[in-house]
Design brief:
The protein has helices at residues 8-12, 14-24, 43-67, 74-86; strands at residues 3-6, 28-32, 35-40. It has 87 residues and is an alpha+beta fold. The protein folds into two domains: 3-41, YefM-like fold (3-Layer(aba) Sandwich), CATH 3.40.1620.10; 44-86. The model has no long low-confidence stretch (mean pLDDT 95).
């Protein structure tokens, strides 16, 4: 269940909100006049979320390469890696 708080809590209960975000690694949804307005989360949670987006983007690119036949034998890839590290 999402944690939903009024915008006044950002001013009046900042420490409590910060601690909750860090302890539970979950966002808090902030409302303004009863409507959704913001999402607050710890930097660690944000970086984790961004990292997942980046990983999914790379996986999508790889899957598109497979669909287009842009693949190489694994042994060739390992050989190229060995050559690069020996430079």
């Amino acid at each position: 269940m999402p944690n939903i708080r009024p915008s006044s809590d950002l001013r009046n209960k900042y420490v409590e909100i910060s601690e909750w975000c860090h302890d539970y690694m979950e966002p808090i949804y902030i409302t303004k006049n009863g409507q959704g307005d913001l999402v607050v989360m710890s930097i660690e949670a944000y970086e984790g979320l961004v990292g997942k987006f980046e990983l999914h983007k790379l996986l999508d690119e790889g899957m598109e390469d497979v669909r287009q036949g842009k693949v190489r034998p694994f042994r060739d890839v390992l050989r190229d890696i060995d050559v690069e590290f020996m430079k």
